[in-house]
Amino acid sequence: MASVRSSEESGERMLLRPQQPYSYEETIRRLVSFEKTAYRSEGGKLYRTLRLSKRPVVVELEWEEEKSALAATVDTELDDRERMDLERILRRMFSLDVNLAPFYESIKMEPRLAQVVEERKGLHFVLDPTLYECLIKTIIGQQLNMAFAAKLVDRLIHLAGERLERAGEVLAVFPTPEQVARLRYEDLQALQFNRRKAEYVIDLSRRIAEGKLNLDELHRLEDQEVVGRLLPLRGIGRWTAECLLLFGMGRPNLLPAADIGLRNAVRRVYELDAQPTEKEVRQMGEAWSPWRSYATFYLWDTLSGQ
DNA sequence: TACCAGGATATGG
DNA sequence: CCATATCATGGT
């Protein structure tokens, strides 16, 4: 994909064309309502810090309507490797290469879900840039309402990550495992983490920092193998492992059937008298294969906002 | 006030 | 093996 160097500033800008159908508006709407921390939204532009191979940068994102492309701008000059890095990261994060046409075609058989999908045409997953970030954010989000969970994530980032300045504003970078490994449990308790959650987050980070756990190895495993590999770790249950497969890895056919949010959404969309059981959700979800992740994602989206 | 949040674990039966 | 309490806070 072409990247253009601006002559006026020292930064540069690249254009990334997504697989259609793609709705930047829908995708960002969900992101902004759900992720109060990692992204900063201002005047139609979105800011997010990302780690390239050697250094963190602030990336400014906006939709370029005439070219139907995502425009990414950084205020620093990138070398070839960083440029390729950034493009790869963004294409993956914003699911730019995921073709939803087959999903939309197959979902026509499910009228109620088809309605939900129709209202959100082009909505794509936004993945976390790293499996580590995804795992930590998911653990923090366990059991908590999303607003509070976002607050805790924000506090962790500002405590442990570097700070970058962009247009007079300070943005924190999601910390590395090494940075979190250096914290004490009490540091996170002071941020209103409960003791156990402070242990989950720090112990996991230490394990990774010490080289005893390599999350990137998970990429080559099947879904169920990934779950099996993660379950023995303290603080990671099935739900958390599945969230990693969804929001860290973008696996297409996951169904977190026990998830309380999904069950509430299914109840509403299918107008059931009672909250369906995990088993019932699993049975209904058979019909959504091999797009169960996206079906889940669209159902989750019915919960936020409205 | 009570109860639930896009859970996981420790403990007791 | 199953049931229940616990967590730390915000929203309803």
Automatic annotation (TrEMBL):
It holds the Pfam family HhH-GPD. GO terms for biological process: base-excision repair, AP site formation; DNA alkylation repair. One of its GO terms (molecular function) is DNA-3-methyladenine glycosylase activity. It catalyses: Hydrolysis of alkylated DNA, releasing 3-methyladenine, 3-methylguanine, 7-methylguanine and 7-methyladenine. Residues 140-304 form the HhH-GPD domain. The keyword Coiled coil does not apply. GO terms for cellular component: cytoplasm; protein-DNA complex. InterPro entries: AlkA_N_sf (IPR037046), Alkylbase_DNA_Glycosylase/TA (IPR051912), DNA_glycosylase (IPR011257), HhH-GPD_domain (IPR003265), HhH_base_excis_C (IPR023170). Its EC number is 3.2.2.21. The keyword DNA repair applies. Keywords: DNA damage, DNA repair. SUPFAM superfamilies: DNA-glycosylase. PANTHER family: DNA-3-METHYLADENINE GLYCOSYLASE. Belongs to the alkylbase DNA glycosidase AlkA family. This is DNA-3-methyladenine glycosylase II.
